[in-house]
Specification:
Elements (H helix, E strand, L loop, with lengths): L6 H16 L21 E6 L4 H10 L6 E3 L10 E3 L14 E2 L2 E2 L5 E6 L4 E4 L2 E4 L4 H18 L6 E3 H4 L13 H6 L8 H13 L4 H11 L11 H14 L10 H17 L1
Parallel strand pairs: 1-6, 1-9, 2-6
Antiparallel strand pairs: 2-3, 4-5, 7-8
Helix pairs in contact: 6-9, 7-9
């Protein structure tokens, strides 16, 4: 037997029908043509240490005002290091802060950040002592970096540490970070030994002035003063460079070995272009 709708039901149906007629059709976009001139928005990859243990690192990066795309844990008991994705690569994470590299600034917008669980530096009577990295953890980071670099075509000169892009504020991932392993994996540029030896002889004979160091470090990528004075900002940049390429001594003082290293890298980068 056919049921007769009540007045309330008729009103409800009429309202639904009215709403249906108000729905706008989905915007039609033709995506059949793809422009040749384009690349990934991701141009830089920045490596950090957390300076905290794993639980604290996870809480800060997932619930605080800073974040990173990835967090690589250290070993947790019997569990090996693990990669956690906290921010989608298509979205901006807040890991770089005030930053600059090769004239590009505000690098949060153009980078992927990887935070590595590591306790960082601690103060001792002999100065700052940095925590070593676990080999298994670094192997995992290298595999992650390889994957990201391949997908976004990130150049080796743009795989960086936080201290590269913010040398006056940051010292991570620090002098214990095994950058040479990343160079051996083809992920970053590394000074050619023969070229460094050749240039070292020249700079042992006569050390360039501070302005020369500032010019070379700027050509390498740093934001550094160009006034010729060995001020705090310049020392910070030299120290950041030394931490990466000459971690046995990173006192921020210009010397022949540092001159040879930076000159070799600038020369090699020019050949690559």
């Amino acid at each position: 037997m056919r049921r007769i709708l009540g007045a309330a039901e008729l009103v409800a149906l009429s309202m639904l029908a009215g709403c249906a007629t108000d729905i706008k059709p989905r915007l039609q976009i033709d995506a059949s043509t793809t422009a040749v001139s384009q690349d990934s928005r991701v141009q830089h990859l920045i490596l950090h240490f957390t300076a905290e243990n794993f639980p604290r690192s996870m809480k800060i990066l997932s619930q605080g005002s800073v974040s990173s795309h990835y967090l690589v844990s250290d070993r947790q008991g019997d569990s090996p290091p693990k990669i956690y994705q906290l921010v989608d690569e298509n979205r901006r994470a807040y890991h770089a802060g005030i930053s600059s590299w090769k004239g590009n600034t505000a690098l949060n917008a153009s980078s992927i950040g990887i935070e590595i669980v590591n306790l960082g530096p601690r103060k001792t009577p002999d100065g700052l002592v940095f925590d070593p990295f676990d080999d298994e953890q670094i192997s995992l980071v290298i595999e992650l970096v390889k994957d990201i670099v391949a997908r976004h075509a990130i150049k080796p000169e743009r795989v960086l540490g936080h201290s590269d892009i913010a040398p006056n504020r940051k010292n991570d991932p620090g002098p214990k970070f095994p950058w040479k392993r990343f160079a051996d994996a083809g992920l970053i540029l590394w000074p050619d030994t023969a070229l460094v030896t050749q240039k070292r002889v020249m700079y042992d004979a006569k050390l360039p002035d501070v302005k020369w160091f500032q010019e070379k470090l700027k050509a390498h990528g740093f934001e550094v003063p160009q006034h010729g004075d060995l001020d705090r900002a310049t020392k910070d940049v030299i120290s950041a460079f030394q931490m990466k390429y000459r971690p046995a001594r990173y006192d921020g003082q210009p010397d022949a070995e540092t001159a040879a290293l930076v000159d070799a890298l600038v020369t090699q980068a020019a050949v690559r272009k």
